[in-house]
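Notebook, p. 212. Picked up where the previous page left off. The plan for this session was modest: take the two constructs that came back from the sequencing core last week, fold each one, and keep the raw output in the notebook itself so nobody has to go hunting through shared drives later. Recording the first one now, exactly as returned: residue sequence, then the structure token string.
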Amino acid sequence: MDKLLNDFSPGLFVVQTILLLLLIFLMVKFAWKPIMNSLNEREEGIQGALDAAEKAKLEMQNLQADNANLLKEARAEREAMLKEAREMKNTMIEDAKTEAQTQANNMIAQAQAAIESEKKSAMAELKNHVSSLSIDIAEKVVRQELSNKDKQLELVESMLGDAKLN
């Protein structure tokens, strides 16, 4: 430090002080505003980026909430559609059962009517056949009975006796 004090030159000190002041003046005049402007722009850019990030974060939260609501609505709609489909399936099954039962009842009624018709037809045919056999048998019996004269008179008298009794 002593060496510095011994080598001290007041003229050099003044020149260096003037140069330093001139350098500071030139820096303030020409470089200070651009440096401050660039620092302000950078600060504004950083603040804008932070604001944009915050805004994006809020939008993301809103989107997530909207997505959750949409998902909930979609699930509710899906459940409603599934319930409606189940109800429609059950309705279709019940309608098909009812229709099948109605058709089965109609077929049974038609079959019973056909059976009844066939039964009546068979009974009528049987009666015709029995009556025709009865007539044939009666005819043969009467012929045999009437072939003999004594038997004819006896039959006529029995019939007259029956007629008087009635």
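Okay, moving on. Second construct, recorded in the same format:
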Amino acid sequence: MITILHNPRCAKSREGLSLLKNSGKDFEVIKYLDEPISEDALKNIISLLKIKPIELVRKNEAIWKSDLKGVMLSDAQIIKAMLRHPKLIERPIVINDRKAAIGRPPQNILNII
């Protein structure tokens, strides 16, 4: 099953959702700001993306700039920050079995569906 972590207020996330709709494949939408993901799920996503936690952080978010920018954080602390402030999680993220992609640009999604 394909899953998209989606924020309806984000244009790139809406574009990613549109790509999935146009693919004709079944998928599940998780509005991660309304339905928080677990720490294990976030760690799994990071693993599937093959990135460091910091690479999943939206560094232009106000909470990052005001509270976390310039602070030396461990991977575990970065994950905790994303769980506490889900707006920090880059979006959209599409997961398809053992593959995942950040939809920036949205065309990245096509590589895994």
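Notes on construct two before I forget. The chain has four helices and four strands.
Flagging for discussion at group meeting.
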